[in-house]
Amino acid sequence: MKGKKLFSWLAVTTILSSGAAASAFAQALTRISDLQPSKTPITISGKVVGLGDADDNEWIIDDGSARIRVDAGPRSWRNINVSKGETIRVVGEMDDGEFDAFSITRSNGSVINIRSPKGPEPWEGKEDN
Fold this sequence. Notes:
Elements: H1 2-17, E1 42-51, E2 56-62, E3 67-74, E4 87-95, E5 98-106, E6 111-113
Parallel strand pairs: 3-5
Antiparallel strand pairs: 1-2, 1-4, 2-3, 4-5, 5-6
């Protein structure tokens, strides 16, 4: 019995130290009130307290320090349903007073990949339908 417990503990330790379990939350959280333009992706988290333009995947999130508009591209490219009251974690960058999303992690752990931090936006140059 003692050998099984030791093996289980070593297995868990190995998995956690490999980074596999922490890949979605690898970055430290930045408070919305502390956001600054950055050349590297930033992670924020907050409760969805409002919705943006109906044609865009936009939400207003609040982390207790401030609110910010999160932009995940036009709905004509991809329709992303995030509900008011939902808590989300967003990796992205500050751009013109709003937060452009690269990925969104829901409270259940599911990840919505929007775009890469490098290169053009996937909807760039495409006309609305």
